[in-house]
Amino acid sequence: MTTTATQVTGGGGAEPAAVPGRGPSGPRRPGRGIRGSAWTPLAFLAPYLVLFTMFIVIPAFYGIWMSLHAWDFVMPAKPWVGLGNYSQLFDPASLQFEPFWNGMLATGTFTLWSVPLLIVAPLGLALLLHRNFPGRTFFRAVFFAPYVLGVAVIGLMWQYLLNGNFGLVNHLLGTDIQWTTTQPWAWIALVGVTVWWTLGFNAIIYLAGLGDIPQEQYEAASLDGASAWQKFWYVTLPGLRPVLIFIIITTTLASANMFGQSYLITDGGPTESTRTAIMVITATGFSQNRPGEAAAMSYILALFLAVVSVVNFWLMRDKDLAREEKLRRRASRNSEGTVR
């Protein structure tokens, strides 16, 4: 005879009966014992990996191969030049030296002007939009709305608004400034348009980071008598460290690859002062039909950006956590040596 709680064994003892929903040692957790194939994650990743390989990995290696040749789209022969295309970029006597480094200077100028504004201004905006007030969702949408517009729309719109003869900006300000044909107004216009365009995106990223900071930390700081500035410095900024690293790196990379705003608003002027490195690379590769030299320029630019990204990541790292990890590893090595 069987029972619902126990069953008699041949040795006269009793053992727990099989109860639905229970394992041999207690309640069964949902999904316990269910094992999928090791290929399942790869199956989900396969579409992305295929596209990433086709449009990123293969073109990257193909570009390196092009940079090592005197490449021409129409000529069948593409002689091997080795590092010749790279060495010319560092030879003041070469034709590529001055345009490329002038473009790099323009890129650096734009990056130095725009990145600090695109880090600080969105943070201040996010702190305001993070407060509870009527219509905050509406204002979030308003500030983010320009980011959904394409660079062609932004460039053409501001080209007319900033026109020195009939532009609306001069009319509203009561000025007579040639925003797109004189310096430093051309840089002010490009930086201002870029900040207005991308401000909302960084603010939304900051808002996501602010939402992840536990409210208990602010309450504890208030109990300790911390001021608003002390809460920002000792609670908000440390809590936003991962977000800050992301925003600094992505904003720096985006600013260093600026092309559309300068091409459409100032056309690289005045006197090619706003002609960025990407504009020089594009003109060299397509207008002048020297894609091998353009590829070499692009990899020099990529190397600079990689160095800047590593430096930013190193400067923004959690120094206390890194110090603790270093001490832990040292203690682990010492304990291993003692055991031996």
TrEMBL record:
Composition bias (Low complexity) maps to: 15-28
What are the entry keywords? Cell membrane, Membrane, Transmembrane, Transmembrane helix, Transport
Q: Which residues form the signal peptide?
A: none
Q: Where is the ABC transmembrane type-1 domain?
A: 104-312
Membrane topology term: Multi-pass membrane protein
GO biological-process terms attached to the record: transmembrane transport
InterPro entries the record matches: ABC_transporter_permease, MetI-like, MetI-like_sf
Q: What is this protein called?
A: Sugar ABC transporter permease
The beginning of the lineage is: Bacteria, Bacillati, Actinomycetota, Actinomycetes, Propionibacteriales
